[in-house]
Amino acid sequence: MDRLKQKVITHKRLVLALAFSSVLVSVSSSAQTVLTVSGEVTKPLTLQAAELKAMPHSQVVGKDRDGKERTYSGVPLVELLKQAGTTLSGELRGENLMKYVVVKAIDGYEVLFALPEIDPDFATKTILLADSVDGAPLAQGVGPYRLVVPGEKKPARWIREVKSIEIRFGK
């Protein structure tokens, strides 16, 4: 009987150890959330969550898929592109107008923007890489980052769980 108790105790310890290690893996992977900006840029970026949080934030108001108006806070996409050395403003003419941005999510979903849609010299709306909504962090499955595009009739390009931004040439 003592051997049986010892096996049960050993089994319970093993189960607890496995459960604890999976929690540690989950915590460490979310703490190491990384966003990359690459492609047709002069300074490719790999940004940790703390770096993005420290960047100047803006707010936009937009209607979510449920039709409710919400206030999103985050880094304007154009600011990330500027940091990466993307062709913008006065340089965005001629063949540079053929550049576009692909934003990718963790699950493989991708959306596309022409570079002039993001540049304030061409566009009036601010596209935001949001990290919070109505003062709270984005929910799991939506965040840690979501692209918010105010004024669009359908939020199909409001991509969730953003992991990378790539600038490409359309030629």
UniProtKB/TrEMBL annotation:
Signal peptide span: 1-31
Pfam families: Oxidored_molyb (PF00174)
Superkingdom: Bacteria
Domain Oxidoreductase molybdopterin-binding: 32-167
UniProt keyword list: Signal
Official protein name in the record: Molybdopterin-dependent oxidoreductase
Source species: Spirosoma terrae
